[in-house]
Specification:
Blueprint: E1 6-9, E2 12-15, E3 17-20, H1 32-41, H2 44-56, E4 61-65, H3 68-79, E5 85-89, H4 97-105, E6 111-114, H5 116-124, H6 128-139, E7 145-149, H7 152-161, E8 167-171, H8 199-209, E9 214-217, H9 229-242, E10 248-252, H10 260-275
Parallel strand pairs: 3-10, 4-5, 5-6, 6-7, 7-8, 8-9, 9-10
Antiparallel strand pairs: 1-2
């Protein structure tokens, strides 16, 4: 395996392209029909095939929710000899998030972070400091600990308050301009998603200002920026031109219609070779 260039996340080499987990859960941010298409495709064998293909293409890390399905998926990957690293997101539908954290830890992810939508809803409700208590609980596990958000100001607030974060999951688009409900319980949730052009420059500016690693997600605007190979490459180019060399990107990959793992890895390899020839390799 020719591994892609990596960044350091608390001593772990993480490729600058990370496989995202939304497609594995049928979360498209497009439509109920695409959600269903993803759900029916990503049976457990196809989840395993995706992780194996990512490894073959030089991607060494995936990110996904810390729910029972994904914990089982990672367990099966490791039992089958797989070497992918897992960055786990808290599953905010669990009544007891701290209990969820304790269960996630048993599956040995390399890092854990607080669910971005739950972070942002807490921000809008004026209860963001309650998320700080969850961050402390995650730090007590001795895993690298992060916070996910769609709102640039949240990152700035956390840094100003000195929370013990090790990294951030930062969305290129602010999908949380107000309270955000999940599509599983709100059929109109996707209709309120907005992807304005001014959003990525705002978030990437904050990513550059923060010394800690940031893992940028939704650079493809949930498939809206990848209608053609040219637009896909342009989205990757923008990302790597505007984030720090110590940051990475997280991209969901839907393998049903094409080998997106191979396509994405090829774009990232080419762009980093051209723009950062001295990039660190694992």
């Amino acid at each position: 395996m020719d591994i892609l260039p990596t960044i350091d996340v608390c001593g772990r080499p993480v490729t600058r392209l990370i496989c995202g987990g939304n497609p594995l859960h049928g979360i498209s941010h497009v439509s109920a029909e695409m959600d269903r298409d993803m759900l029916t495709y990503y049976t457990m064998p196809n989840v395993q095939a995706l992780l194996d293909e990512c490894w073959r293409q030089g991607i060494n890390t995936f990110q996904s929710r810390g729910d029972r399905h994904q914990m089982r998926a990672y367990l099966e990957h490791r039992l089958g000899g797989g070497k992918m690293q897992w960055i786990a997101q808290t599953a905010s539908e669990f009544a007891d998030i701290k209990a969820n954290i304790a269960e996630i830890v048993r599956y040995e992810p390399i890092a854990i972070y607080h669910h971005g939508t739950h972070t942002d809803n807490s921000w809008h409700a004026g209860k963001i400091d309650a998320v700080g208590d969850i961050v402390k609980a995650m730090k007590d596990t001795h895993l690298p600990t992060g916070v996910g958000t769609h709102i640039p100001e949240v990152v700035q607030y956390i840094e100003e308050k000195g929370w013990p974060t090790d990294f951030y999951m930062t969305c290129f688009y602010d999908l949380a301009r107000g309270y955000k409900s999940a599509p599983a319980v709100d059929q109109n949730a996707y209709a309120r998603d907005r992807f304005p052009r001014e959003d990525p420059p705002r978030m990437t500016m904050v990513m550059r200002q923060v010394p800690k690693p940031c893992l940028g997600f939704k650079l493809m605007a949930a498939s809206r920026n990848c209608a053609t190979p040219q637009s896909t490459r342009a989205a990757f180019q923008f990302a790597f031109d505007n984030i720090k060399p110590t940051d990475a990107v997280v991209v969901g990959m839907f393998q049903k219609y094409s080998n997106q793992a191979a396509e994405n890895a090829a774009f990232v390899r080419e762009i980093l070779r051209q723009t950062q020839p001295e990039a660190k390799r694992g």
